[in-house]
Design goal:
- This protein is of the alpha/beta class and 93 residues long.
- The protein is built from 2 helices and 3 strands.
- Helices cover 26% and strands 12% of the residues.
- It is elongated, with a radius of gyration of 15 Å.
Length: 93
Amino acid sequence: WALGYHQCRWAYNSTDDVMDTISTFDRTGFPLDVLWLDIEYTADRKWFTWNSTTFPDPVKLLNWVDAQGHRKLVLISDPHIKKDPDYSVSHTI
């Protein structure tokens, strides 16, 4: 899968958006091995969190992606931490 086609764009905004994108690849017959999610899967752009409103069930999403022909879903994690007084991770830096 590492040598296959990887699809990435900024702002896959929801589970439905991810599922629609993958379904579009299937409908058009374009091969897809990996779909990358950028920061929008996080809660308020804070790494090590999950946006439970727009991506309510990450396990269900991962299982659905896997069932679509052994595809992979990769979560981008950049090496920066959002400075926010309500974000516990930023207090440890």
